[in-house]
Design brief:
CATH topology: TIM Barrel
Distance between the termini: 60 Å
Order of helices and strands: HHEHHEHHEHHEHHEHEEHEHEHH
Bound molecules: (3S,4R)-3-hydroxy-2-oxopiperidin-4-yl beta-D-xylopyranoside
Radius of gyration: 25 Å
Strand content: 5-15%
CATH architecture: Alpha-Beta Barrel
CATH superfamily: Glycosidases
Structural class: alpha/beta
Number of strands: 9
Number of domains: 1
Shape: globular
Amino acid sequence: MIMTCFRSVVQVVLFSVLTALATGCKKTTKPQLAAVATLKGTASFPMGTSVVASPLSERPIYQQTVLTEYSSITADYEMKLDIVEPQQGVYNYAPGDFIVGFAAQHHLRMHGHNLIWHQALPSWVLNFQGDTTAWENLFKTHIQSVANHFKGEVASWDVVNEALFDDGTLRNLDHKQGDGTASIWRQHLGADYIARAFTYTHQADPNALLFYNDYGQEWGGPKLDSMVVMLNNFKRRGIPISGVGMQMHIDINVDTAGISNALKRLAATGLLVHISELDISVNPGNIGNLVFTYALQQQQATLYQFIAQSYKANVPSAQRYGITTWEFSDADSWIPNFFNRPDWPLPFDNQYNKKAAYFSLLKGVGN
Ligand code: XIL
């Protein structure tokens, strides 16, 4: 009896010592850190950001955030015409090459932006004198030189950017309403230049996915209607188009029903749908001394989550090319410079800390 009792006491003590040792060992040799969720690790589709070559090479926190959070990158301006072809036939690929090299080294998807746009044009294009044939040659040569240079390194291209006026007509020289910024391309190349841009790009890089990219789809109305007509027309004619980009430069007063409607209608074309340049401005009224209050932070965060959820709800998974923000930190957003006002449009703050917007976007992209 005494022996049995003694044996059980020894067993209990031994068991406790062994358990304590085992637990102790586990604690010291394998610290159990809670994994920190990331955007790319949470979403079932690519999460992207646009980047600029200089901070990517020089600012460790910038580079680190890109590598931790994103699976796709787009160049802010390093592939635009004024940078890559500052003089006719003189190409400057170094900044773009740095970005594609970074993408290749870190296995990130590289989205090319853009081949044809009415902005970012150098004076040699704006002042070019030539007949229709000379213009067509300039247009085709630019597209094919750039697409050929980055062939195999970019997965996709925004082939044509912002070719429609806000009223849905083709951006031209003689238009005065809405966004009246002219398009020299339409003026010299005729109405079907957009389709030809796709064909030329496809000839140069048959493996790249080709996108039409624009803003304002969430307004609905004539711009969205014409875009859908154009995309369906390209598909019917066998023009090599793979997808459509919704820039989504929006602000906190956006009509959310318009976002869902646009996603649904663009998805109905059967094309890939890329939210390509997302940012959510909180100061659309240009208030010079605006404070980014808690209420504004929450309002912005709710919208980020809504966009991700609406994307999943309205775009079938096979058509989700991903969600890309235009930069990721308020420190690097184009909005404050472009509109000359304080603003905080992105998921990371000026110090690269995660904002409420980040956490809501994270929640929105998850299942
Ligand atoms: C912006 C860049 O972020 C700026 O650095 C540049 O000065 C102007 O262009 N729509 C587009 C992008 O398609 O190319 C623009 O990028 C933002 C609006």
